[in-house]
Amino acid sequence: MVFRRPERAKTPVEPVTLKILVAGGFGVGKTTLVGAVSEIRPLRTEELLTEAGRPVDDLSGIEGKHTTTVAMDFGRITLRADLVLYLFGTPGQERFWFMWDELSEGALGAVVLADTRRLEDCFAAIDYFERRAIPFVVAVNCFEGADRYPAETVRQALDLDVHVPLLLCDARDRESVKEVLIGVVRHAMEQAAERRRTVTG
Questions:
Q1: What whole-number distance in Å separates Cα of residue 196 and Cα of residue 193?
Q2: What CA–CA distance (Å, rounded) separates 147 from 113?
């Protein structure tokens, strides 16, 4: 009779959870991006745009927009069995920027979503992450009907440092958004490794 050693039950892997911010100007597609990739029903804090907000909410180029995020969007995506990303979409209008400090606490990195029709709207987010040394990538949301420009032209227009990745994406497409998020994680890890080399070198 052959006795077989009983197989050990595999210990479930406790995934590493990372926090990623999604920032950018008003109406650039942050809520759409979180919703496209989240494996859970995204938490949204959207309110209807009102006449009271018309003087401060510039709808040029996004006239079809009827709602706005007033606190945050929240979603989750599992990239691997041992790696889960929590996504926090920040509100775009200046009057809600007080939320950013709270949301950025403990963030690994960020996506700054940009629209070539309103590039100036993402300057505030770029400045915010640069000042706080939070690694970020810029993702140009390729809207239908928007002019397409070479990545280097957009980089120059935004005055981005050479080490900041600039990617093209479709915020509606899950695979496209996943590539952006992988880019954020990779960039943040490279930045962390660079800091370690600087300290130990």
A1: 5
A2: 16
